[in-house]
Here is the input.
Amino acid sequence: MLGVPALAAIAVFVGAYVLFVFRERHQLLIAGVAALAVLGLGLVSVSSLLPTGWSGRGGVVEWDTLGLLLGLFLFAGTLRELGLFRRIARRLARRLSGRPLGMFLALSIASFVLSAFLNSISVLLVVATVTLELASEAGLDPIPLLLAEVAASNAGGAATFVGDPPNVILGTYFQLSFGDFLLHTALPAIAALAVILVIFSRAFRTTSPPPPPTAVTERESPEPRWGMGIALAGFAGMLLVLAVQGPLGVPIWVIGLVGGALALALAGRTHAPNVLRHFDWPTLAFFVFLFVLVGSLVQTGVIGSLAGGLTSAGGGNLLLTGSLLLWSLGLLSSLVNNVPLAAAAAPLIAAIGTGSGLPVRPLVWATALGTDLGGSGTPIGASANVVGLAVYRKAGITVTWRQYLRTAFPVMLATLAAANLVWLVLR
Here is the structure.
């Protein structure tokens, strides 16, 4: 039985979520007021807003994620100012000219592959920006392209240990290896990608391209190619350090802040002011408020109670319990950020294994697939969604909640079904 604090947390979260849908232009204000409400009601303690140590983790706010996001935003802004994205877009447009389906397939598959090995935030920052340029050059509607890329990115993140934060959390908790994830989650993720490609490809076969969007007006850069090369090498170096940060013991937020400072240095006096002027502070603030809201659900036991009740319905049957985990956590991941959801699910899985005698590893794979793929269902389900939509919003293109849900939510359900079928075979 949920207590009064849990019911209050649910009421605030549901109220904010409803307002997100109907007042999407004011979602930052709504999230801020809701975060203040849960703090004022004592549903989240002020002390829990801060991390518990040097790592940037331990509090309800994922400060390491925010630090990384800051650095990635600054690097993306620098590369944009130097004209790299426009140059890439024009080359791709020449090769794929007159072939919208080919452009869609290339961008979606690239999002999947890159997100399997790189942070989905950095992937969507680059891919969404390039997509805007390509769509402008080719006269295509950029919105279906973005929604397909977001879904493909989240599917790619499910394929490996390092692809998505929930995988890292679960893999570390249960001491699993990169190879373990590759053997058990890669094929379900590929099946999900196949579903995404089939469903979205119809939009590029049956509809004629609309007039070119006028929102993207990025100017040509006079910078020489060596300037772009140095900036791109710096960005690649940041991603490399990020990939090996575990053995190095360097906190993720440190990598983000150092990378951001390097980006501004590479931008120089000519471009740094524009990078800062166009920096997306509202998205960072929205993440902070969202973490606080989700933290209220975690700290009052709402997420644990919901997941526990659903998984206990499995009755000791591995296939049923795993499928319930996949679907229940997948649907929950559409509503709340999948990072704290995975953190709450890890001890729950351990308890199920101890109490029922079921093997734990198949349940881990089901949980990873559910939390990763389910994040595609709504605009706030995963970091990739928030970042990709923010890139479009900065360019003057708004994807409404209704438009997103109408297109992406059914696709998310189809990917969960495909992954579930493959998991039943591999388990």
About this structure: The first helix runs from residue 4 to 22. The chain has one domain: 4-426. Residues 207-222 have pLDDT under 50 and may be disordered.
